[in-house]
Each structure stands twice: as structure tokens, then as C-alpha cells.
Design goal:
Helix content is about 30%, strand content about 30%. The protein is built from twelve helices and 23 strands. The strands form seven sheets. Strands 11-14-19-23-20 form a five-stranded antiparallel β-sheet. The structure holds glycine.
């Protein structure tokens, strides 16, 4: 099968790598990255250029397109591909609203009976103040739309709230979901969906803060482990029955078939598991950890879901555990310099090094992003997976490199 993967980050590198392991597929990426170029042909089309991607997929005669990031999905790439007769493993724009609008997701969960914190939609700072009663502890403010991971605020006083309101209502306008803050351990659930049927993958956990001990600013994710420690046995089944199936059912009732990955960011609150957010694609860096534990022809599984004839029989979850440690550029998630030479990947040992922000300059691999590499180890248990990942991280060098030392521990 000829498969085109759209995107250029660690998640897309993990998807291409997994596709390359079985099935003998002819793999292409747009735009891809230097790591992906080792297993597929890369084409200079951006992941948010919908018309460009449809044209590329048509020209290649692609049997399947797998968009990695959320922006093209929310903007309707699956619909555009369908109109051209090309199967897409990724949801339609109507379904991707689950990530594109926090309020749509909240309202849909309420209709579907999926547990989530109660929330209110506010369109002015005054409405937010009224909703919270002016006391900020215990509230979360969320930008309704896509915000590249920068749209969620947990104000801890008047000064923090002022700052958040300024960012959420730039120029006075905005749509903000105000909801109660829940406490507990977080877990990421990803399900491969085909409208009605779904396969829930093992639970994982990412680490969003920049520094050890969950300190510092939020990032795109500094690492992930799978299975997530401290999660009750059978949580996949619980999530399938209580989150994934109800959401798919409610979308179908509204005339939309969800085909692609449904990601539920969940929290194990004292009152029970609750959904914090949905994403309409694989998590990043969760994909790097979770996909490392899958065996089988995942391309065939993606196509079966994209065409509404789900067949999960060709896929197996391996025993053991995996850990992905992100190596980032000094200064990330703030400003950082790029173009530093990367050494040591070739001697990294028994791990997979996923490229997230790299480029080739004058024949050398250099840094080209905030998150540069995702070093992923597997093992019989989480300890062994972490040991392998960290041993490799210590052998890879670039100027300003930093990483968290406590992935999997908090
Ligand atoms: N790791 C969270 C996300 O991909 O949005």
C-alpha cells in the first residue's frame, strides 16, 4: 500500500516507523524530517497545506493518508481527501471539532453521559469573573479554540487571572470555557476508531512541564511512558465503555462517523475518572512511547478504519513498557537558538531516536526546533525502558540540550 503521512514531528516519525515495520508499504511524508527520510520519501508540502496535500496524494496515487497534527484535521483535510476518493485515517472536520472547540466537546460529553467537570462558555472577561465569583482558586480557564498547547490557564490569584484574561481575550474578544479544576493523576487514552468500533491502546502519561518535579512552564511534552504507572487494571475497557463508545455513538447520532485516533486526556479524580480534553490525533510524545509497544501491520488497521470496515486482528500489544525522553533546545518553550550540530545518535544503542526538530545543514544533522529528539527505550518493565532511554540520552550531544531526569517518576 502507498501511504502518505502528513507532519514533521516526533509523532509523525513514530507513525512512519511503525508503518515501516510490517506490510512492505511504500511510505511517503510531507514535509517529513531527516529522521523520517531514512524510512520514507519526503516531499516539500506543509502539513497545513490541505490543497497541496490532496494534490500530492493524488499525484502519488496514495491508498491512504495519515495526517499527524490537529490543524489540518480541524480545517477539513479528511473531507477534502474523501471528495477526491482518497481514504484518510483521521476524522472529518465535524468530528475534529472535539479538539477544535472545547465547548463543543463539553456539550457533546454532557449529551453522551461522559464524565467531565461542569463548565460554562464565556465571551467577555466580565462573564468569566461572574462565573468564578471572582475567586480564582479551583477554576480552569480554557481557550475554546486551537491554541497550540498555550490555551489553558490555572490562575492562582488576581494577578495570574488578569494575565490569563489578557491572553484569552486579546483585543477584548474571545470564547473561553470556565470549568472546575479537578485533582488527581493524569492519563492519556488513545483509541483507534472506525465510526462504531474502536481499539483502545495501553494508557500512557506525558510530562507537560519543562523541569523536574513538574515545575516550570508548560511545553508540548517532555517525555512519556507506557503503560502509565498507577492506573487500575482494565482501565482500557473502562475507557472504551464509558468514554470512547459513548462519544462515537453521540457523533453518529448527529450524523458523523469518527475515523481516526481519538485521544482523551483524563484525570483520575477522587470522584472518579473524568475527561479533561479530547484531541483528534495521536498525542505527542505519547505516540512515541505507545506505538513502540505495537506489533503488526498498523497500515492495514488504519486503512480498515478509514474505510469503515474495522479489522484490528492484525495488531498486537507487546508485553513490557516503553519510555520516551525528549531532548530540547536550551530556552524552550521560550526563545531558543537553532542550528547546533547533533552528535551521538549513531551510537545511541538499543533505542529508537525520533526526530522532532532537526534539519540537515551542510551535510550535518543540526537542531531546528524546541523539542529536538525523542529518545525511546523499551524493556521488560518501566525501569529497564527508562534505563535504556537515559543511557542513550547521555550519549547524544548538542549545544544547550536539556531534558527532564524524572520521566515516569511523577
Ligand atoms: N501530549 C499531549 C498532546 O499531544 O496534546
Amino acid at each position: 500500500m502507498r501511504i502518505l503521512v502528513a507532519g514533521s514531528g516526533g509523532r509523525e516519525h513514530a507513525v512512519v516507523n511503525t508503518l515501516s515495520r510490517r506490510g512492505g508499504h511504500d511510505l511517503h511524508a510531507a514535509p517529513g524530517n531527516p529522521g523520517m527520510a531514512a524510512v520514507c520519501e519526503c516531499h516539500p508540502v506543509k502539513a497545513d497545506d490541505i490543497q497541496g496535500l490532496v494534490a500530492l496524494a493524488s499525484r502519488l496515487g496514495a491508498d491512504l493518508v495519515v495526517p499527524g497534527p490537529e490543524a489540518p484535521l480541524v480545517a477539513g483535510i479528511a473531507d477534502a481527501l474523501e471528495a477526491s476518493g482518497i481514504p484518510c485515517f483521521g476524522p472529518s472536520a465535524a468530528c475534529a471539532r472535539l479538539e477544535g472547540s472545547k465547548w463543543f466537546a463539553k456539550e457533546l460529553m454532557t449529551s453522551a453521559g461522559v464524565r467531565t467537570a461542569p463548565g460554562l462558555l464565556c465571551t467577555t472577561p466580565g462573564e468569566v469573573r461572574e462565573a468564578t465569583g471572582g475567586s480564582w482558586d479551583g477554576w480552569v480557564l480554557k481557550d475554546d479554540g486551537l491554541a497550540a498547547g498555550k490555551g489553558v490557564f490555572l490562575p492562582d490569584g488576581e494577578a495570574g487571572a488578569e494575565d490569563a484574561l489578557g491572553r484569552l481575550f486579546p483585543g477584548g474578544g474571545g470564547r473561553v470555557v470556565v470549568e472546575r479544576r479537578l485533582c488527581g493523576r493524569e492519563v492519556s487514552i488513545m483509541a483507534i476508531c472506525s465510526g462504531v468500533e474502536a481499539l483502545v491502546l495501553p494508557p500512557s502519561r506525558d510530562h507537560k512541564r519543562a523541569y523536574d518535579g513538574d515545575r516550570g512552564p508548560n511545553t508540548g511534552g517532555m517525555g512519556a511512558v507506557c503503560p502509565a504507572p498507577g492506573i487500575p487494571d482494565g482501565f482500557e475497557d473502562w475507557a472504551l465503555s464509558n468514554v470512547v463508545r459513548p462519544v462515537l455513538g453521540e457523533l453518529r447520532r448527529r450524523g458523523a462517523d469518527y475515523r481516526g485516533v481519538l485521544y482523551a486526556g483524563m484525570i483520575l479524580a477522587p470522584e472518579g475518572p473524568s475527561v479533561l480534553e479530547f484531541n483528534c490525533r495521536f498525542g505527542d510524545p505519547e505516540a512515541q512511547a505507545v506505538l513502540a509497544l505495537l506489533e503488526g501491520d498498523i497500515g492495514a488497521v488504519f486503512l480498515s478504519c478509514a474505510t469503515g470496515k474495522p479489522d484490528f486482528s492484525g495488531i498486537e500489544v507487546l508485553p513490557g513498557a516503553s519510555a520516551c525522553v525528549v531532548m530540547a533546545s536550551g530556552g524552550y518553550p521560550g526563545t531558543y537558538a537553532s542550528g547546533f550540530r547533533i552528535d551521538g545518535i549513531d551510537n545511541a544503542g538499543d533505542v529508537t531516536v525520533f526526530h522532532a526538530g532537526t534539519a540537515v545543514s551542510e551535510g550535518r544533522l543540526v537542531t531546528a526546533g524546541g523539542r529536538v529528539l525523542g529518545v525511546t527505550g523499551t524493556g521488560a518493565g518501566l525501569g529497564e525502558a527508562l534505563e535504556r532511554a537515559y543511557a542513550a540520552v547521555r550519549g547524544i550531544t548538542f549545544e544547550g540540550a536539556f531534558w527532564r531526569e524524572d520521566i515516569g517518576a511523577v
